[in-house]
Amino acid sequence: MNSIFLSIVAAVVSFFLITLIFGFFYFLCKSLKRRRRTHHHHIPQTRAVRSVPPATAGRGGELSSVTIDESASFDPSLNRVSMEELKLATKNFSSDLIIGDGSFGYVYKASLSDGVTVAIKKLDPDAFQGFREFRAEMETLGKLRHRNIVKMLGYCASGSDRVLIYEFLERGSLDQWLHDTYSPVSKERSDDSVASVKLLPLSWETRNKVVRGVANGLMYLHGLDTAIIHRDIKASNVLLDLDFEAHIADFGLARTVDASHSHVSTQVAGTMGYMPPEYKDGVMAATVKADVYSFGILMFEIATGERPNLPMVFNGKEMGLIEWARKMMAHNRYEEMLDGSMPEKEKEKGLLSEEKVKEYFSIACKCCNETNADRPTMAEVVDLLNRLSS
């Protein structure tokens, strides 16, 4: 009898416990549903920024500060132009008129209605840093005036389109002259499209002229009251005019640093092969000495004709350009380091003297010091290069 009674009690208790558990979950679900209804009720009251396309939002939701359908001219040689005129001048940004590709956008050759030939950079609207780059170039290049800095003539913004207008430099990029047998420079067609032409190897004298030009341009940028750190010095960002004078281009990754500071905190940026070793160690600071390192790598590239982002071989072992160069120098193999395509006649003129070649590579090595603080300033580099050319 007792066992029957206990069984009944256990069944009743179990029933009440199960009822309580189900009741708890029922009220919990009702509560969550009520919260969701309340949340959805408030959504229509949220304002959307419709005039700003997704591409104009940078990291952290940074929105455009540029008025839609806006243009500006920073040079008296350029009248303000509309997006329609730029589309007409580039045949709606035809691939036949592409003369290069900078960070986050292609560069086109364009002939404006007044007969002026310019370079047009159309930023990719889907680029993650596209608008940030656009604003950086406007704020920096529009004010800069130096013989070794590409002159920004103006800009045009319409809807999601962001276009920069530069002076046109006839001989294209240094990268093409160092590495491409055929490049889309110099020769023009009757329909304004760009033809590929065979490029002659640069002489040692011309290569030194280019190096001095880039050095002077960087010295100018670093010497401003608010120094400008380029952060992407490389051969494709050096443009050449008819006289092979170098002009630094593409300020999309540039950052300014106040004179009272030695660096600016930022995300690591640049091009593989040119970035300083401290970036690999997780250093999140852009400094002028990072530009110096990239310049040193560029010096090696200009003299050797080798790409910094491709492996070199020394005694059967693959390594980077800078490690290869140091080993070659340690074994006194300077002449073997030089680009074999350079004209032989320069040796006869004494322009390729071993002493000058050694000093050239010594300067490049100083710029590429592993320790940031031990690298020279660009002013010191310019002084060393001037002595080399005297």
TrEMBL record:
Coiled coil: none annotated. Belongs to the protein kinase superfamily. The lineage of its organism: Eukaryota, Viridiplantae, Streptophyta, Embryophyta, Tracheophyta. This is Protein kinase domain-containing protein. ATP binds at K122. It comes from the Eukaryota. The chain crosses the membrane at residues 6-29. GO terms for cellular component: membrane. It comes from Linum trigynum.
